[in-house]
Amino acid sequence: MTEPVRGLRIAVDVNGERHERDVEARRLLVHFLRDDLDLTGTHVGCDTGNCGACTVIVDGVALKSCMMLAVQADGSRIETVEGLAPDGELHPLQQAFSSFHALQCGYCTPGMLMSAKHLLDNNPEPTEGEIRRAIQGNICRCTGYVNIVEAIASAAKGGGK
Amino acid sequence: MSETTVTPDRPVTVEETETAPGFIGVNVPRKEDRRLVQGEGVFVDDIKRHGMAYVHFVRSPYAHAAITRIDVSKAMEIDGVYGTLIGEEVAAETDPFFQIAPPPGGDLKDYALAVGKVRHVGEPVVAVAAATRELARDAAELVEVDYEPLETIVDPERASEPGAPQLHDEVPNNTIWQGNFDYGDYDAALAEADKVVRIKKLHFHRFSSTPLETSGAVVEYNRGTGQWTLHSNNQFPGFAIIMMAPALRVGMDKLRFVSQDIGGGFGNKICTHVQLVAMCLLARKLNRAVNWTEWRTDQHTANSHGNERVFLDVEVPVKADGTLLGFKARMIDDAGAYIRYEPLGCIIWAQVTPGVYRWRHIRVDFKQVCSNKSPCGPNRGYSRMQHLWFTERVIDIVAQELGLDPVEIRKKNYIRADEMPYETPNGCVYDSGDYERCLDEALKLIDYGSIEEKRRDAESRGKLLGVGIGSTLDSGTNNFGQSTLVNPELQFSGNNEVATVKLDIFGEIVVTLGTTPQGQSHETTAAQVVSDMLKVSPDDVNVRAGHDSYWNSHAGFSGTYASQFAVTGLGAVKGATEMLREQILKIGAAVLGAESTDEVELADGTVRRKDNPEAALPFMACGAIVNANNAVLPLELRDITLNCRYVYVPPHQLPDKERKYGNLTLTYANQIHACVVEVDPETGVYDIVEYGAVDDCGVRINPQIVEGQVQGATAQSIGAATHETFVYDEDGNLLTPNFYDYHVPHALDMPPMKTAYVESASPFTPLGAKGMGEGGGAGLSAVAAALQDALRGSGKPIVTTSSNPYHRVWELLQKPEESRQLVEVEER
Amino acid sequence: MLLAPVEYARPSTVQDAVRLLSTHDGARPLAGGQTLTNVMKARAAAPDVLVDLNELHELRSISSEGGGLELGAMATLNGVIRSSEVASARPIIAEVAAQIADVQVRNRGTVGGNICSNDPTNHLPPLVTALGATMTVLGSDGERTVPADEFFVGVYMTAVGPGELLTKITVPAADGAGDGFASVPIGKDGTCIVNAAATVKDGQARIVLGCVSATPVVLSAAPDEASVREAVQGAGLDPPSDVHASSDYRRHLAEIVAVRAVEGAQG
């Protein structure tokens, strides 16, 4: 697309389901997911790309969806928290987060889970340092991260409970 | 008495559907988790309504200015803009918010939008509503507001001096409140002292817990009934309704508050009633649902800061053997531009007047001022944290100046376990606690015995090592009668919380709560209490998620704040469950042919005869009988409903207004923290290398949940001690308005943290539990003390601020004499 | 917050990108978006057209020739970290890229973006200056190269003008040089309060200070502590004061990180 446009019709695959929508060029991916597709699991926590609550995986890459335009995701495969338990059976990470009390208010949790999934997809046996590094871009105000790190370590070891 | 439980390597977890005898004290998995881990929580911005308008506030760029002109016409020309709201309309359609303060402080006028004048950067001036978020933002840029800037006042010490710019015409010298507190006999203590330590100034800085979800609401107005429904994340709807209804000139029942999931609150979602009034007016004016989602920048700039407090002319009489007799101080609290929960902060600190120490002679001159900064809200630790930090700095500085061991001086002066319940000099009663025991455990956690060895090792690497202790209390279950000590005309006292527990037609147990949890696991702990009492599994107990004032499961003080759920919320749950239990036993006795309820018991979801367990009536049958088959019951039992509502009311008394005396809180959890830091003397950069936190909140309903609170509160405290500061320039501009400059701890910033728990049951509460969650403030003291210890060899600077980022440590290293000028010891 | 209305184009060739940038006033390139989207959210900048560079795959390449490196401007920070070419030619680049923010930012953020945004607290401008890199800039009238020393012209401003695009960064071979980098960030991997990059070669240290001025400050000194300190003290630095550091403190920290960067280059 070589001439500038105000808006675009985009097609995205989100958690295995295809969606087509007209969007304004300026619409952020996070608002596209939340408002246009009603996938409200991905959250907004800040204005400056620091908090990571909006983290999703696009074409296998974890990124903050508040710093990507929806039009940039045209043709992409997007994974959000809603896709982790497709048939209601919790992903090992989700199970571990619950067992280890790695969430309190739950607001950072979707972004945290996607960062954790991205880590384990690429590094199945991370050290504690690698786990902390993987979630460095996800702010949590409730937990102090202790249990989050333990939950991810446990899920990596095949524990989900 | 006290029992030490050291954190197990892994939490004990009960498998789903397993029934175990007694669920109190067990780490039952959380009910909240299933929806939250799937992203199926319902937070306020998740709620959509057909035709909903999105609201963006036009906010003041000035800290202090007169508004001379507002023109919304260009904004209104944009297609898709539905309407606006300005201060003039608000002043016509609402009354100023009720003020807790007595005159003259209470005479100031606070409206939902700025009226005539702005008093802090970010104050909302105009609200714009449009079809999309982006359009509302675009339209806001076209709103024209002209200001005439006025001189600003941001220094709390100068705010009440003659000549300072006045924020509110009604409030002379920007002084919201002033009061004197005088307990024991301070003059005699001073005369008796062997030494007197004087500290010119200590400063507790502005910061807040900055919950990850910002404030917000979706507000609808029903023109037929005049009812507003507010889906909001306000965490104290009882208070919001009491504030909003008179302002809107409607009855309290016209405001329905609904919330399900809230992304953290920590006290910062208590004062949003102000913005919610603007939303209500817009919803009514535009006849459509309106959505407001606060921007992060706006939350930092204009929502709720923790109180900033300065402690001046501190004087501490001490005996030669290290006994501290008391203290005298002038305290100035900076509440920001408007007082919304203030001036309660002027009395709430008095819940912990002596901190954890036995000194009896205390004299405080307390003043609260307003300034051109963000209004304050009751941020986690509210007002007690500031005061407890002060007492802990005093102990630490006195110890250093008099050459006393920081551990020994604390043990000497701590209130003792055998003195509990302990009445403080101003009549508060500490229910239980073993501070010395907790200190010993904290020191074990950081391997205190090896500190000198670690110090030498650090030295060999060119680093300065320091160790510090922080002692704090978490007082919970307020007696709102303390408000009469700041304003004798107020008619508030006591406290309450509501729960309903019922048995449905299919024998389902359903619980509703009056609280508004933001991560504190109320659904889970409530289920634990109910299942424990009714002898079922927590999985059989359905707890309605969230809060809805339509359920009538709330009272004047309902909400989630002030470390009280384990007492008030669970007290209400216990009370309602006891009523239900009695009713089930009565039905069982009647149907099973028993003479009295003594002959029947609850077990495995049934009521059965003790002498013949086969003779059992399942709960489902009880539900069916009462709801659909009640002629089988004798007439005298026909008033059984199996739907029980209980209001927990703590045994508070009215305090003595004259003497400012009385029990202001029901429970006192305590926390003793210890930490080790390593400072790079070349740069002032430091790391926390060890951290231990010991918490005693009485009986722990769910130890894993308590641990989560301790870890989270500690992380916030470490963040506040190191990098989190709301810094203002001279013109009242906030220099840290977002997460870029206001650096909160990320995963790699956290030190290794160990925790341990002591359980000193409260003699005053239904379950022996105490409220908890605000005790993390000990970290501010522990870090300050550790830094002071580390820097001892570099000129013995004293740490006088709660905020100690690298540049502050550098200043202390470079110019220790500057801080030393603030302390002086008089030998008698 | 939210972006102002903007037009968007996604060219598939570099020539097309340059054409779009030069024919539309107020057009700006969109690389990783880790800086520009935030600037646009705050409405501190409101370009009329965003030219998305993410389909220009030729700009993502990282190649090594004769021990030197050619980094495509759109190479992501994560790409640089994982590159075996970078690891063998000039590993300091990967080391420094790994200190920038977090995984999500590094997955999208690009070397070109970090360099062209030229925020004084960025990591790569001082680093590429210390390495003596050369930037290749493509405009509608052709291609030109700009040495790093001349590339950074002011706060947020580089030699890349309107209608132009940074296409690659050429880093000379180490050829016996040692590279170092030191910083004092706010929290782990946070924004830099000060940073310094250093290259030591043939007994001489080339030190570049970030965060202390509108553009990176280049100094030369013998690679011993005293000489480095003298060089920094003699540079007449007047660093900005902000919430994290006063001018004096920043000046002092600059001295320390300069020494540490040089030590790192030799270690």
In short:
Chain A has 161 residues and is α+β, with helices and mostly antiparallel strands. Chain A has 5 helices and 5 strands; from the N terminus they run E-E-H-E-E-E-H-H-H-H. In chain A, 30% of the residues lie in helices and 17% in strands.
Structural class of chain A: alpha+beta
Low-confidence stretches of chain A: none
Stated plainly, the CATH topology of the largest domain in chain A is called Ubiquitin-like (UB roll)
Q: Largest interface, with Cβ-Cβ < 8 Å? A: A-B, 60 and 59 residues
What is the helix/strand order of chain A? Answer: EEHEEEHHHH
Strand content of chain A: 15-25%
Largest sheet of chain A: 5 strands, mixed
Helix content of chain C: 25-40%
Q: What is the domain tally of chain A?
A: 2
Assign the structural class of chain C, choosing from mainly alpha, mainly beta, alpha/beta, alpha+beta, or little secondary structure.
alpha+beta
CATH class of the largest domain in chain C equals: Alpha Beta
**Proportion of beta-strand residues of chain C:** 25-35%
Q: Radius of gyration of chain A over alpha carbons?
A: 16 Å
Number of helices of chain A: 5
**In CATH, what is the class of the largest domain in chain A?**
Alpha Beta
CATH architecture of the largest domain in chain A: Roll
Helix content of chain A: 25-40%
User: Which word captures the global form of chain A?
Assistant: elongated
| First-residue to last-residue Cα separation of chain A | 48 Å
Describe the overall structure.
- The complex is a heterotrimer of chains A (161), B (828) and C (267).
- In chain A, strand 1 (7-14) and strand 2 (17-24) form a beta hairpin.
- Chain A is built from five helices and five strands, in the order ββαβββαααα.
- Chain A folds into two domains: 7-84, Ubiquitin-like (UB roll), CATH 3.10.20.30; 92-156, DNA polymerase, domain 1, CATH 1.10.150.120.
- In chain A, helix 2 packs across helix 5.
- Chain A has helices at 29-36, 92-99, 109-122, 128-134, 146-156, and strands at residues 7-14, 17-24, 55-58, 61-64, 77-79.
- The longest helix of chain A has 14 residues, at 109-122.
- Chain B has 828 residues and is of the alpha+beta class.
- Chain B has three domains: 44-150 and 215-293, Aldehyde oxidase/xanthine dehydrogenase, a/b hammerhead (Aldehyde Oxidoreductase, domain 3); 179-208 and 304-481 and 655-823, 2-Layer Sandwich (Aldehyde Oxidoreductase, domain 4), CATH 3.30.365; 496-648, Aldehyde oxidase/xanthine dehydrogenase, molybdopterin binding domain (Aldehyde Oxidoreductase, domain 4).
- In chain B, the strands form seven sheets. Chain B has an eight-stranded mixed β-sheet with strand order 4-6-2-13-10-11-12-23, with helices on both faces.
- Chain C contains eleven helices and 14 strands.
- In chain C, the strands form four sheets. Chain C has a five-stranded antiparallel β-sheet. In chain C, strands 11-12-13-14 form a four-stranded antiparallel β-sheet, sandwiched between helices. A three-stranded parallel β-sheet of chain C has the order 1-3-2, covered by helices on one side.
